[in-house]
Amino acid sequence: MARYDRAITVFSPDGHLFQVEYALEAVRKGNAAVGVRGTDIVVLGVEKKSTAKLQDSRSVRKIVSLDDHIALACAGLKADARVLINKARIECQSHRLTVEDRVTVEYITRYIAGLQQKYTQSGGVRPFGLSTLIVGFDPYTGVPSLYQTDPSGTFSAWKANATGRNSNSMREFLEKNYKETSGQETIKLAIRALLEVVESGGKNIEVAVMTKEHGLRQLEEAEIDAIVAEIEAEKATAEAAKKAPPKET
Amino acid sequence: MECVFGLVGNGFAIVAADTSAVHSILVHKSNEDKIMVLDSHKLVAASGESGDRVQFTEYIQKNVALYQFRNGIPLTTAAAANFTRGELATALRKNPYFVNILLAGYDKETGPSLYYIDYIATLHKVDKGAFGYGSYFCLSLMDRHYHSGMTVDEAIALVDKCIMEIRSRLVVAPPNFVIKIVDKDGAREYAWRESVKDTAVPAA
To answer: Are B114 and B187 within 8 A, CB to CB?
Structure first.
């Protein structure tokens, strides 16, 4: 196995590209990120690992906008993310310049995935060590979308997904609890999924919400704390209801 | 024949441009908007070669937008003006753009400003400026009637005086003008001054 994981351009005998798989490992070590699509809203949530005391937390934005109507969150190597995000932002403006229209979410996802794929088939380079969650509204139909890309360059659309640390538990939670929601309910679902794997509290999660009218809005810590409190209260009443003896048979 | 002029008032900047798109002796349309909204608080009034005008201003607009996404804050008017001038200067000795620009903007810290950028990459920060044959009339009128700290009504009255002068004294005077304003509330269209109306064009 050691002989087949050196260069990215070498397949192993059983058809693996080890460098790509190692890149996926890097993603699995990155912070947890979740995305949920509602009927009129899309929500991105990211785990905020405790910032150092002297660090200015405002300079560490994990959810970024690519254009007025597209936002991205990622898990994995943050330096690689910077490069990919920069290229994506240029592409968004370049698209606007050449065809005088905004990109669709699918277009920019395909572009980012294409970039990630290019680096799995070139000599002397390594793949990007990150998976992205891309959300936005289609500029023509107004339909909200959520897409995910990974280091191999594959992408697909999702109703809700998670990536990064403990993404499997979050995805399980989402599969069990997902239903079509809108507005505040969608935000709650995203935060509930994150809380499965992250210590609760507004300090440890960053949440951003995108609507067609208002674009991307980062939630304040106080807002997140309020929603977390709501969720905990709901959990408590659910627990209490379970424990209480049934009134009717 | 194209006329573009503008001035800075009390907490705002105003630019006016003619709206005729002309090719040789033919007027293609007389409601061509030559004042582009560069971003929320900037206006670019451009005159010159029509292909270059649209191409160059759109290029500047997209680069200004890219800067904003990359850095999380918008460019100042001065920075946008210098960037624009830089692009004109770089292209000048190879493939020059024949576009004259009046860039009006409002910054929270420094208030309204107006920049005169001509096609050979001259850059001046001015209180009032004009391009085209109309400038021969507008500049004199503005020299006579302009004073710093004009109100919107005073400024519009001066703009209207300039438009009247152009209409009556310039041999091939453009009939229609568009006026746009930028202040703390943003860049927006203020009014049209039409003496000839085009028939309605069905939407594409």
So the answer is: no
A221, A203 Cβ separation under 8 angstroms: yes
Domain positions in chain A are 21-231
Give the C-alpha distances (Å, rounded to integers) separating B11 from A111, B7, B136, B139, B149.
Answer: 43, 11, 27, 21, 8
To the nearest whole Å, the CA of B166 is away from the closest chain A CA by 34
The ipTM value here is 0.82
Structural domain of residue B76, as residue ranges?
4-194
The model's pLDDT over B29-60, given as tens digits with 9 standing for 90+, comes to 999 999 999 999 999 999 999 999 999 999 99
Yes or no, beta carbons of B70 and A86 under 8 Å apart: yes
Q: How far apart are CA B35 and CA B50, in angstroms?
A: 13
Do the domain assignments include residue B199?
no
The total number of structural domains in chain B stands at 1
Residue in chain B closest to A65 (alpha carbons) equals B69
Q: Which residues contact B124 (CB under 8 A, 6 or more apart)?
A: B115, B116
Give yes or no for a contact between A99 and A172, defined as CB atoms under 8 angstroms apart. Answer: no
User: Is the confidence at residue A92, as pLDDT, over 70?
Assistant: yes
User: Chain A: nearest CA to B134, how far in angstroms?
Assistant: 31
A131-165 pLDDT, tens digit each: 999 999 999 999 999 999 999 999 999 999 999 99
Amino acid at A102: R
CB A77 within 8 A of CB A129: yes
Is A93 at the interface with chain B, CB within 8 A?
Answer: yes
Nearest CA in chain B to A92: B66
Query: Does a structural domain hold residue B53?
Result: yes
Nearest to B95 by CA among B56, B59, B66: B56
**Domain-embedded: residue B202:** no
**CATH architecture under which domain A21-231 falls:** 4-Layer Sandwich (3.60)
Is there a domain that residue B201 lies in?
Answer: no
**What does the alpha-carbon distance between residue A132 and residue A180 come to, in Å, rounded to a whole number?**
23
Q: Is B58 helix (H, G, I), strand (E, B) or coil?
A: helix
To the nearest whole angstrom, how far is the Cα of B112 from the nearest Cα of chain A?
A: 26
Q: Is A222's Cβ below 8 Å from some Cβ in B?
A: no
Q: What is the CATH number of the domain that holds B33?
A: 3.60.20.10
